[in-house]
Amino acid sequence: MMQQIVQVKGLTKQFKNLTAVNNLSFSVNEGDVYGFLGQNGAGKSTSIRMMLTLIEPTSGQIELFGMDLARHRREILRNVGAVIEKPDVYKYLSAYENLELFARLSGIKPTKKLLMDQLEMVGLANRANDRVKTFSQGMKQRLGIGIALVHNPQLIVLDEPTNGLDPQGIADIRNLILHLSRDLKKTIVVSSHLLSEIEQVATRVLIIDKGQKLVEGNAAELFDPAQTIVELQTMDNAFALEQLKASPWSSYLQAQRNTAILLKLNRTEIPSLHTDLAAMQIQLLSLQPRHSLEDYFLQITSGNQHVDTYTN
Amino acid sequence: MWTLIQIELYKIFRRPRTYIAFIAVAALITIIQFGLKVDGKSYADFLMKDIGGTMEIDGNIINGYLICYIMLQLLLVHVPLLVALIAADMISGEANMGTLRLLISKPFSRTELLLAKFFASTVYTLLLLIWLAILALFLSMWIFGTGDMFLMKSSYVVLLSENDVFWRYAGAFVFAALAMVTVAALGFFLSIFAENSIGPIVATMSVIVFFTILSTLNIPIFNALKPYLFTTHMISWKEFFDIQVNDANEAIVGSIQNPQKIVNSALVLVLHIIGFVGGSIWIFNKKDVLS
């Protein structure tokens, strides 16, 4: 049985009148790349900061490596590496000096070889002695990840690691996460408001909105590429909707946005739908497949729906 | 803990800002020394102007000891700003740079972090005072020589023999260090509330200026307050230069007129340091780091 690295139970954080995180529970297994997904302000960063003891929970319990975080903080944090939002480091120090400083703060005495290997892994070995103030955002982000990894932690927490990066920087971070997961067998919690980022790296996903869990599940099932949403535009959408509701396609209908009619179905069912629409004398203007996950994400994060654990 | 202290000291002394204070002190002292070396006689005449009719001085009163005293009076008003520049930046600067959240997610307690930071800012303060002593005392002794020390207080004159001065400076500098560490503790305390350095630095200086005005105002309603203001006690280093006299009105070598006042002032300053640092730890341990 896989070990649970993170177990969060009933986590709540109240800031005066605002409930940033509301009774949140989830777990991360060993080896997971756990995608923490939600729109800006959903409560992702607050949850992550509570996992790193930056914010004290109002209530609830956080266990990491089977130990209570409040009681075994020091022991737990020795085994955690984190990049929290922006990868801010000491700009007046070089990449090498920053890495050495944070390695010592993480409780290890690093050798020069270890530090250079680390910089090599994040692609900064040739800039080791340059001051960080001369670095681009992407380089700082990679250095931040190097710092998070330098003490060889079992759990890596990356809060919005692609924020402010250009497409190449985003791809670099994505490849690094995949390398850490596949080659180094690290457990990674990565948060983002960008669905496409999580989709490409996560093995399990938690979607939260307004501090509450909407969905927690296996990414492969949640992001099933066979499932798609099609958007219909017809000459008379009200008539079309009436016809569809009275047909076997009624169970495929999704909540409407604007005037478009949305149906969730398997890609292989599109030809039959097309035939049936003609049979129902619905005059089709367009039938457009949409990105299923994005639609799903937007649907559940804007619809205030509550969905229990999707799958484990 | 030792690792934390080493790292905090390393960070302080790798920042260019740290050296501003050392350069400023050196510049001010050398300018004053230059002025007095070139035109010391005029300054001595100016000092003697008010008492010229009542006593006569044989010899040169301008020597290293007197110059150091003059400079201490001037500089100890300004050194708090230089101390605040670093101490008030210790937490707020990290919050501003964004490194605070990374520090706090490391495997040591917030109390350890604060104590290490305060210790490091204390070391900086002490080094600044040592630098001040080297330039203001030892360099002045070298440039102007030594001799008996002639001091004019507000209503009387103190004459200290040459061999009775140096230990007083040692005591005065130790006391001044305690006063500056109190300033550092205040700056440190204020720095936990802010996310940029300017606010706590300005706030530290404002508190000092405000309290100093209250301490020096001779309005009866404020008199009850004065003994509790740390600024009242910061200038007690001057007590080392007040000497006891015997029945024949002769100075007693090696004496201090009011040693109890020095002890009391030192105690008040130590209590302020404990209060500021203890308050910082208590508040910071409860603080959510949102920066």
Q: If you had to describe this structure to a student in words, what would you say it looks like?
A:
The complex is a heterodimer of chains A (312) and B (291). By secondary structure, chain A is of the alpha/beta class. Chain A has two domains: 4-222, Rossmann fold (3-Layer(aba) Sandwich), CATH 3.40.50; 227-302, Alpha-Beta Plaits, CATH 3.30.70. Chain A is built from eleven helices and 13 strands. A six-stranded mixed beta sheet of chain A has the order 6-7-8-3-9-10, with helices on both faces. In chain A, strands 2-1-4-5 form a four-stranded antiparallel beta sheet, covered by helices on one side. The longest helix of chain A has 16 residues, at 167-182. Chain B is mainly alpha-helical. Chain B has one domain. In chain B, 67% of the residues lie in helices and 3% in strands. Chain B is built from eleven helices and two strands, in the order ααααααββααααα. Chain B has helices spanning 2-14, 18-48, 64-87, 92-97, 100-104, 110-144, 166-191, 198-216, 220-223, 230-234, 259-286, and strands spanning 149-152, 157-160. In chain B, β1 (149-152) and β2 form a beta hairpin. The longest helix of chain B is centred in the middle third of the chain and has 35 residues, at 110-144. The model of chain B has no long low-confidence stretch (mean pLDDT 85).
